[in-house]
Structures are given as structure tokens and as C-alpha cells.
Amino acid sequence: MVSVNQLTLDFGTFLLFEDVSFLINPRDRIGLVGKNGAGKTTLLKVITGAQEPTSGEVTMPRDFSVGYLPQVMKHDDRFSVFEETEQAFSEIKKLEKQIEELTQAIHHREDYHSEEYLSLIDKLTEANERFNMFGGHDYRSRIEVTLKGLGFKPSDFERPTSEFSGGWRMRIELAKILLRKPDLFLLDEPTNHLDIESITWLEDFLKNYSGAVVLISHDKAFLDNVTTRTIEISLGRIYDYKASYSQFVTLRHERREQQLAAYRNQQKKIEDTEQFIERFRYKATKAVQVQSRIKQLEKMDRIEVDEFDNSKLNIKFPPAPHSGKLTVSGKHVSKSYGDLLVLDDIDFDIERGEKVAFVGKNGEGKTTLARIIMQELQHEGTVKLGHQVKIGYFAQNQAERLDENLTVFETVDKVATGDIRTKVRDLLGAFLFSGEEVDKKVSVLSGGERTRLAMVMLLLEPVNFLVLDEPTNHLDMRSKDILKQALNDFEGSVLVVSHDREFLDGLVDRIFEFTNKKTKVHLGGIYEFLRKKKMDTLQELERVPLKANKTDSEVSGASSGQSGKVAFAERKELNKRIKKAENEVSKSEEDIARLEKELEGLSAVMENPEKASDPAVFEMYQKIQKNLDAAMEEWEVAHLELEELQQKRNVLDESA
């Protein structure tokens, strides 16, 4: 258990938070939320001991271990990916070396009954016991599983860490923390540099982890899938709810409404009491009543309404200039970095007003194709912009590209031209840079503030094609929602490279999936794509077609041994998946039958006019109907999956 007790932290005249107290219990899954600049990262630093509070303390048990993943970190590039990750097992590595030295020492001795020999045997036994206790025999396989889960290929393991981008090196640090299995995880924006598949893997890991987790994230879906408790920092205070983020938002709103109602009632009572006192203060016959009312006011516990930070972005993109029907078109596009082929003979097009997403694992070429569209990279094939298409570009590292020596105002004023120069302060104010904040140096801005400043640059002139590469990194939830609404209202074309499922949901209607140096187009929204993707992965079970130029005897000889093993493994895996799919279908059918029965019972109740007008009954009816619709959809997905699996097994049986 970690106790945060009456923490106060101020920076000169600026109070970040005051008298903050809460407990972190074993197995807690806490989402730390709040606006950019509210103090979330600083609070994590205080818990780790990296930052001293102005007053208050953080206490934890002796031998309690904390793993901290910061947003920005320094990297040591002396080792390979695997060797760097092995640093998580420094104790095991020391024991491994000690065991080797003791074994060598014993091997070269023949005084089997001497005290020194027996002492060496005791030390070796103790070292082996500790080695086993720490999981020394399987730590390499644990490293492999963790690195693969975070998106690394086996071929990456021996590559120097210096060859990887900052995002990939962050994953190495995350792998080291995950492997150490600390009592408490402190994770600051862990999903910023992860693709959707790696985020899903991390979700599963954290949900099943035996220790406590406190994480900062602006990924609503990630928070909802991992956390069961939410602590909000707002205007120097904290609000603690035993609920996931979405539940917290609802409960927070309800609490405030209840507080406002109680506050208004109390204010009315106070006003009536004060009027009574004022009216009868000087009447001797009412002296007792007046004194009684005065004492009532003095004893009254005044209701306070939680302060709420209502400041928010005000994003509205300028009207999109008219352009041709086709926004951009690519034919036979290929791109290599040296010997590394990233994109291979890709065709694509985006039409006027269309909103599309580029998704896929990191390193599959999403940003590369975005930069090719921006004409920033040489490539094979042709990419043509449509008639009068003008692009606004937000790069993944746009926030880091800003000149740290300039102020916020100077950064925008340097780029602005024409009439917009007279509106720079208004524009910055819309992005929450007001008053003295416009004179801040870029070097002191938080990650979220830098992203907001980079966003301002997009609004300096009208465009009709927005290309946005990971625009939501470091933006808080409210800012992301406002940006999403602004993009929905934008009449031009939008291309978004993103891993943020909630941000893409309801924004894009066509998805380009990047995989194996190719793109595959999916119509529909992001969650529909993810549902399909679950079935698409079953295609990996299909046998690789035999090459046409082989003779029957060559095929027979080659397949009799290894192919037979492969076919057996495939059939075994298929049977396992079929059994799981059958169970899912059966469970869905049971759920549907139960819900239909409940709905039938409620329908009978609602035939009574008195019951039909009861809001609670109607609300229950709607809830069950919604659950039934969801169960029907789950049954349909599971049934399609089962049919596809059974078909694949038939193909295997026929070819056996």
C-alpha cells in the first residue's frame, strides 16, 4: 500500500495542487486524468521520489518496488535490443555469472572432503536456489514473449538499439519495466508510440497483472479496458471515483448536478432565513425566533460545489477552398530505405470530402506514405494531387520540431502572413494560450501544450486536404473530442494516421490497413474493421500453396515429412479454435434465449397501462432490448467465424 498524504506543490506563485491525499492499494487499476498541465506527470514524479513536494509525504512499505515509464527518457545505445532488455534481470545475470564461476572452481578441485570444497558446494546450492526463485531458467523466453507482444520481430532482437526510433526505444524501456514485475506500475502515456495490436497486448497484460497500476493516458478505450478507479486532478484538487473513465465522467456530472441542486436549495433557505432576521430583528416579540435563526445560520454546514475547469479549445478549421473531385491518387508506389523495402507497388486514391485512416503495425509504412503524399520523400511510381488541392500537414514529431528558443507568440507570428497576423493572439487564446502564457518559451511547454501550439499552425491559412500523423498524442480527452468534432465539421478531405480507436470512431469511413508492404482497404468505421480483423487473422491458418514449377514427386517427397507435421499442427490449432467458436455460439444462443424471455415478461408487464407509464420499467425494457441486439450481433460474428473455421478444416481434410 502506498500512502499519498497531504501533498502540496507550488512553483513560486503558481500552485499546482494542494493538500492532496489518497491511497494506492494492492491490485488497484487507477487512471490519473485531468487537463494538460494539471499536474499528472508531476504527481507521478513525486511518488517515485524524483520530485520533492512543497509539503506532505509519500510513504510505502520497505522493499516495495516501483516501475516508472516517463513520457521522455534518456536512452543508452550500447547494446542490442535483447541485451538492453536483459538489464531488467540484472540480479539473475549476476547469479548466472556466480554459478558459472563456482562451477568452474569446483570442477578444478579434488579435495572433496575439505571445508573449502564443502563451502563452495553450499554457495553453489544457495546461488542455484536463488536463481530458480527468480525464474532464471525461463527469463530469456519471457523476454522474447514480451518483446514480441510489444511489436518486435525476432530479427530485431540482435539489432543495436541505436537503429530504432524514439518510439521503439520507449517500447524497450516498457519491456524492461514489465519484466521486472514491480509492486507498482507508474505509466505516463504508454500508448503514445504503440500500434493498435501492441496496445491490445498491453491491455491484457495490465488487466491480469498481480501488482498495482497507476497510468496517465488520453486513450479513452485503453483507460476503460484497464482501469477500475479514476483520480482526476482539477484546479489543484483531486476527485477519486471507484469507476472506469467513462463511468467516472457520468458520475462526476451527476455529482455536480446533485451538488448544484443542494446548493441552490441551501442558498434559498439561507436567503429566506436572512430576510426573516432582517425583518424582525428589532421586534421584541420575535427576539427568540430571530436568535434561533441566527444560531441556525452559524451552525449550518455550507455546501460547496466542486470547482470545474471549463476552459477548452476552440477549434474551427477555415472553410475548405473548392477543389477537384479527386484529392490525391497514387499508382504503383514503392519505397525502400536502402535494402529495406517498406512499400511495394501500392495503388490508392482519396476523393474530395472523404475522411480516411491509415492503420497498422509500426514500421509498416503509414508515415512513409503520408510523407510521400506531402512530396517529402523520393519514391517509385506516381502520386498526383487533384485540381487546386492545398494540404495542411501535422507531422508525428511536429511538436518536437518547434524552435525551443522562441516564445509561443513568436512561433506563430514568424509563420503567419497577411490578415491572420492581426489575429494571432485571438487564435492562441482559442488554443488556451492567453495573457502571459503567450510569452512562455517553447522549451518550458508540456507535451500537450506543444501539440496545441503545433495545431495552431494548421489554422493559419485555408486548406482542403488535412494530413494528420498521430495528432492526438499528448492531447487530453476534452481537447481530442473537440478536435474530432472540428474534423467532422471540416468539409475538405482528411487523412489520419492514428492508433487511437476512440478518436477514429465516428470520424473515418474508410480504412487503409498497412501490412506486408501492401495496403488493404476496409469500408466502414474502426470498430467494424477491428471485428473483421479478428476473422481475417484466421487466413493465416490456410496452407501456403505449393509452387507450380515442382513435379508431383518433388511435392510428395517434400511434403511427406515436414508438411505432414505442419498439417497436423494446423488441424490441431483449427480444432482448438473450432471448439472455442462452438462455445461462443452456444453461449450467445443461451444469452439470446434468456434476454428474449426477460423481454417477453416485461412486455406482459407493460400491457398494464399503469406499468407502461413507469419510467423505470421502460428504461429496463430499453436496456434489455439493447443487450439483446448486442447478443444477436455477437452470435452472428461467432457463427460466421465457426463456419469459416469448419470450411478450412474441410479443405485440410480433403487435401490430406
Automatic annotation (TrEMBL):
InterPro entries: AAA+_ATPase (IPR003593), ABC_tran_Xtn (IPR032781), ABC_transporter-like_ATP-bd (IPR003439), ABC_transporter-like_CS (IPR017871), ABCF_ATPase (IPR051309), P-loop_NTPase (IPR027417)
ATP-binding found in the keyword field: yes
SUPFAM superfamilies: P-loop containing nucleoside triphosphate hydrolases (SSF52540)
Entry annotated with the keyword Coiled coil: yes
Single annotated GO MF: ATP hydrolysis activity
Lineage: Bacteria, Pseudomonadati, Bacteroidota, Bacteroidia, Marinilabiliales
Protein known as: Probable ATP-binding protein YbiT
Leader sequence residues: none
Source species, domain of life: Bacteria
